[in-house]
Amino acid sequence: MNHDKSWLDERIKLGEVATHLEADAAARRQEPDFRTKSEQLTESDRQILSELPPDRFASEVLRRAASAQRIERARNRGPSRAAWGSAAMAACLALAFVVVRDPGVAPPPSDSPTVAEPSGKPGDAPVPPPQVATTLPAATQSVQPDRIAADWRTKGDIGLMLERETPDGLRSVTNSDTLSAGTRLRLSVPAALPWAAIYSIDSKGEMAQHWPLQGSRAEPLAQGALPRAWELDATSGRETFVLIRSEKPFGLENVRKAIFLNRAAPRLPKELHVSVVGVAKSSEHAK
Amino acid sequence: MALDVEELYRKYGPMVLRRCRQLLRDEHAAQDALHDVFVQALDKADRLRQDYPSSLLHTMATNHCLNRLRERSRRPMDRDDEILLNIASHDEGHDAFEWGSVLDRMFGREPASTRTMAVLHYLDGFTLEQVAAETKMSVSGVRKRLRVLRERSKLAEVAL
Predict the structure, then answer these.
(1) How does residue B90 score in pLDDT terms, banded at 50, 70 and 90?
(2) A41: which chain B residues are within 8 Å (Cβ-Cβ)?
(3) Smallest CA–CA distance from A217 into chain B, residue
(4) Which of A115, A167, A204, A275 could be cross-linked to A133 through a Cys-Cys bond (beta carbons 3.0 to 4.6 Å apart)?
C-alpha cells in the first residue's frame, strides 16, 4: 500500500514537527517533490480561505456549537422537561388542535428557532429530502381520529399515534380536543419497528427524546405505547413529534440535528423514514 | 479563555479540510465535517494550547470522518477506500468497554479510537511508535488494539 504522507508535509509547513517525527521530516525535506508539494499546500490554503472566509466560517461554527448545546441540554433533561406526573390543574383555554402536516405544504412554525435550514451550501448537512408520512394538504384541515390512522395505513407508512389520558381512559387525540398544559399523551406505534427513535420539539426549540429512553443510537421499538406518557408543559405554540424508523441501525446525532433544523421535514438519508405529528397547545393548564 | 475560531481556522482550517476531503472524498461532506471538527475543538481549548494543534486536529478530523463513513454506506472506490471503509465499520462498542482503562481515567486521558489508530497506521503510514506518540498511548497498547481490530475485521490480510 502506498502511504499518503501529506500529513507530514502539513506538519512541516505549519512548523509543528513533534520530536517523534523529526527524522521523517528531515528525510522528507530532502525529497525532490517536497518543494512542489509545499507550494501546492500554500496555494490550496489561499484558495480554501478565499472560498470560505474565516469570519463566515467562525460564524457557522459558533452557530452549530450553540445548536449542539441546546440539543444536548434538551437531551440531558430528557422526557422530564414536561414535568412527568405533575398534572397541575388550572384555568383552561382551548384552541388546541392536532394536525398531521404535509411538510411540502405547511410552513414551519413561525416561532421556530432562528437557525438556517440546510440549503446545499458549503457547511450544510449533505442529506437528501426525507420520505415523510403525509396526509393532509393543510395544517388547519379538519380530521377525525380514525382518519389519521387510516391515512397512515393507506400510505403504507407507520406513523405515530397520539392518545391523551382522561379519567375515563385513553382517548384518541383529535382536532376538536383541547390540549392544554398538563395534558398527558401516550405515544404509540401500530407495528413493531426494527430500529426507531422518537423526539418531540416545542416552539422554543427544546427537544426531548422519547425513544430510545436513553443512548445515542436507535433501538427496536415494540408495537403499542411507549413505556412513558408525555405531559405537555406550559410552553405555548406547537409541539412536534417526530418518528424516525429504519430497517437498519442508525445513530441519533445527525437525526437530532436534522430535527432541530427543520422539524416539519428533517432532511435525512432516504433509508430513514420520517413521520411527523404536530400538536398545537395552549399555555393554560386544564381545569 | 475562549478560542479564537477565526485565527484557529486561518491557520489550521485548510489542513483539516484537506484531511476530510482525503477520507470522505466528497467536497460537501468534507466541508460539513470541517465545521463539526471545529465545533468539537471548542471543547478542547486547553489541549489545543498545550499540544501541537495540528496533531490534535488531524486526529479529531480522522475520528470524525470515520464516524461519518460508518453512518453512510457506499461502495468502496479503490483498495485504500475499501480498507478505510472496513476500518470505519469496525464496531468499537466492545472495545470502548474493554479499553476504557482505569489508568486512562486516572490520568484524564481520552483513549483514542482504535479506528483512528488504524487509519493513522495503515493509510497514513505512521509507525506504531508514531501512532503511540500521536495518541498518547503506549506502543504495546497500540499494537494490541490494532491486533484485535485486525482479528475482528477484514484487515487480516494487511500486514503490520
Answers:
(1) low
(2) 14
(3) B71
(4) A275
Mean predicted confidence (pLDDT) in B95-123: 56
A67 vs A120: CA distance, rounded Å: 19
What residues have CB less than 8 Å from A8, skipping those under 6 apart?
Answer: A21, A24, A25, A28
What is the dihedral sign for C-alpha A220, A226, A228, A229? positive
Say whether the peptide bond before residue A212 is cis (omega within 30 degrees of 0). yes
CA angle, A202 then A204 then A207, to 5°? 50
Query: Which residue from B minimizes the CA distance to A4?
Result: B124
- Taking CA–CA distances from A120, the nearest residue in chain B reads B28
Bridge partners (DSSP) of residue A225 are A188
Query: What grid cell was written down for A17?
Result: 514537527
Cell of B104: 486512562
Which residue, B21, B2, B24, B25, is CA-closest to B13? B21
Q: Which residue matches cell numbers 437525526? A: A255
Task: Name the closest residue on chain B to residue A48, using Cα atoms.
Answer: B14
Q: Do A57 and B55 touch (CB under 8 A)?
A: no
Do A25 and A11 form a contact (C-beta atoms < 8 A)?
A: yes
Q: Is the pLDDT of residue B96 over 70?
A: no
Is any Cβ of chain B less than 8 angstroms from the Cβ of A7? yes
Q: Chain A partners of B129 at a C-beta cutoff of 8 Å?
A: 20
- Which one has a higher pLDDT value, B87 or B58? B58
Per residue in A36-88, pLDDT (tens digit) is 999 999 999 999 999 999 998 998 888 888 877 766 666 555 554 443 333 33
Instruction: Enumerate the β-bridge partners of residue A280.
Output: A238
| The model's pTM | 0.49
Could you read off the pLDDT of B15-34 as tens digits, one per residue?
Answer: 999 999 999 888 888 998 99
Is the CB of residue B124 less than 8 Å away from at least one CB of chain A? yes
Q: Do B80 and A16 touch (CB under 8 A)?
A: no
Phi, psi for residue A242 in degrees, rounded to 5 = -130, 125
> Are residues B122 and A1, on separate chains, in Cβ contact within 8 Å?
yes
- pLDDT over 80 at B10, yes or no: yes
ipTM higher than the 0.85 cut = no
- Residue A238: what are its φ and ψ, rounded to 5°? -110, 135
SS3 A193: strand
Most confident of A189-203, B9-23, B42-56: B9-23
Q: How confident is the model at residue B153 (pLDDT cuts 50, 70, 90)?
A: low
| Eight-state DSSP code of residue A104 | T
Which B positions 53-72 lie with beta carbon below 8 A of chain A?
53-55, 58, 67, 71-72
Q: CB–CB of A61 and B10 under 8 A? A: no
